[in-house]
Automatic annotation (TrEMBL):
Residues 15-202 form the YrdC-like domain. InterPro entries: DHBP_synth_RibB-like_a/b_dom, Sua5-like_dom, SUA5_domain. NCBIfam families: L-threonylcarbamoyladenylate synthase (TIGR00057). GO terms for molecular function: double-stranded RNA binding. It comes from Christiangramia crocea. This is Threonylcarbamoyl-AMP synthase.
Length: 207
């Protein structure tokens, strides 16, 4: 089955398009969508067979995968993350929405497949399309980058080329315009001092 390419505008995502994407996710479909950095590959966090499909595509074991959770905002953080202190919350508040992935201590309400995780990566991208999808779905989407490090950059930034490459692996490719080719900055907040794991698009001067 070929992937459908749907054009959605970041300034004003059309509700009917968002609903269509949400519908596909609820049925266990895989979607490639824009963020404020690289295009991401995602599925419904509560759908185990969809999660397994992504793990297979990325060639990793699901339990050991380091997929991040894309949230709409910080309001449902407590569902997936242990109680965090004020200093940590202030950093999150200052940086999100934005091009960061924060490693936080995993909570007790994680979906079963992630239960053994000590930590989770949380993303709140500064992109209205993916946040509208999460809002419509009612829970986060699990996300991983579509980029391979040894690959031609256009394949991760041009929606037409992304669709060409991923055509038989996903259900929908959202065309939200050209993507960026710099990944998010990853910061670990589970240690005493914040640790920068990967410097990407987000400035580390905010720490």
């Amino acid at each position: 089955m070929a992937a459908e390419l749907i054009r959605i505008y970041d300034e004003n995502p059309a509700p009917k398009h968002i609903s269509k994407v949400v519908e596909v996710l609820k049925k266990g479909g895989l979607v490639i969508y824009p963020t404020d950095t690289i295009y991401g590959l995602g599925c419904d966090i509560t759908n185990v067979s969809a999660l397994e499909k992504i793990a297979q595509i990325k060639n990793v074991k699901l339990e050991k995968s380091n997929f991040s959770f894309v949230c709409e905002d910080l309001s449902n953080l407590s569902d997936y993350v242990k109680q965090i202190d004020t200093a940590t919350f202030k950093i999150l508040k200052r940086c999100l929405p934005g091009p960061y992935t924060f490693i936080l201590p995993g909570g007790n309400n994680l979906p079963n497949v992630f239960k053994k995780r000590k930590t989770v990566g949380i993303r709140v991208p500064d992109n209205n399309i993916c946040r509208a999808i999460v809002n419509g779905l009612g829970n986060p989407i699990v996300s991983t980058s579509i980029r391979d490090d040894d690959e031609v950059l256009e394949y991760g930034t041009d929606p037409e080329l992304i669709r060409e490459k991923w055509n038989n692996l996903v259900d929908i490719v959202i065309d939200g315009g050209y993507g960026d080719n710099i990944p998010s900055t990853v910061i670990d907040l589970t240690t005493e001092e914040p640790q920068v794991i990967r410097e990407g698009k987000g400035s580390v001067d905010i720490l």
